[in-house]
Design goal:
210 residues, 0% strand, mainly alpha, 9 helices
Length: 210
Amino acid sequence: MAPAATDGSGDPRTARTRGRLRAALLEACADRPLDRIGVADVVRGAGVGRATFYLHYDDLRALAVDACADVVREAVEALHAWDRTPPGPDAPPQELLTLLREIRGRAAVHRGLLGRGGGGPLGELLHQELRQYSLDELRRRRPGGSGHDLTASAVAGLFTGMLADWVHDRTDATPEQLAGRIWRTLLAVHAAAVSQGQSRAATGPAAPLG
């Protein structure tokens, strides 16, 4: 799902062109969903030609994945913004709240990239990256445990689905309320995994999240 790379991708001119294309796509997504946007809309907004677009990306979906990279990285980091022991159920990471406030501020854009139920380029990339990061963390923190793959899938699926429903106004919650609900749900997933014998070493007062 990575964007098509071209030779010389480290060139500042290449970075600027891709940045303009990403910005044009995000601006277009503020008015309509991705499936109603064409390459012509993006190149017109970016001030480049179609040939330039295809020099950098195979298609609009590849551009969309690239445009989603920053928010996905921020989401993954927000859910793991703690050192040895995660905050309790009533104290979600501040980084998670900050992220949700930013997403709410650009809800129209994210609706264009995050489909209902967690699909779309943003949903798919978010699920993929969050699942892999969670799986790596679980294996690192609990090397003797089992069932890490399912726990990581649950973490990724729950967060992506809850975020999608919120962005599409299927649930009424402030960023503060949603951060608390997401955090309590994810902690519950890990508590359930531990109670099923996933790892005796993780049965302290606050089991580390993956």
